[in-house]
Input
Amino acid sequence: MNQNTDSILAVVTVNKDKVSGGAPIFFARNEDELVSISVNLSRILDSTVHELEGGTYILVKHG
Output
């Protein structure tokens, strides 16, 4: 049986008023910092970055 073990590890956003939840949330000051934080975290956490609506990315560990 194949079980889906994907997990959201973090959220990175410039929209402080649009996010909440159980995953760690990182707030960026602008789009450049948003990309930089997301890429660095994805390398550290060995995860994939997915863009949601403008200004918010999630880092997902696909398993």
Observations:
- Residues 10 and 23 are 5 Å apart (CA to CA).
